[in-house]
Design goal:
alpha/beta, Rossmann fold, 7-stranded parallel beta sheet, globular, 191 residues, single chain
Length: 191
Amino acid sequence: MRNLTKIAVYCGSSSHVSEEYMEAARATGVYLALQGITVVYGGGRVGTMGAVADAALAAGGDVIGVIPERLHDLEVGHTGLSTLHVVDTMATRKTMMADLSDAFIALPGGFGTLEEISEVVSLAVLNYHDKPSACLNVRGFYDDLFSFLEHATQEGFIRRKQRDALVLEETVPALVERLRTMRIPQISEWL
């Protein structure tokens, strides 16, 4: 069983989304806080990012934000976090979030969310780290992505053990439990 003390939560900055997505973000923040797991996220105060952070803080949790200076200067940085790191670039943000975290969760989001979860999964399958990753499938949001991943696996672009480095769950408790029990195969197992 993997000990999870900090989990990176990748999510969106748009507030123009269904209330179901905002509620899922809040539920994620509350659940992680109640489990004693620190939320590591992009440092914003808007969208599902802000919802995760605010809910975790309100539930007594710790929240670490990592935001590029450019976005912070646009006044989207959250000012009430346990810790806020203001960094120079998006690349530095992603590296710091990955280094600080024991596992990764993608909530519904856009290009940035997809890029962030893809990068940490890619690094896991290349054994740069052994941290697990999962997507929370709110309203079937990730169904098409997982269909694509299955197609890419069938076509030989992703090996089956690599494909299993990213999992899909419908609820936050199931997702966290899955992260605790996941094992990242070593490269030698699929070469």
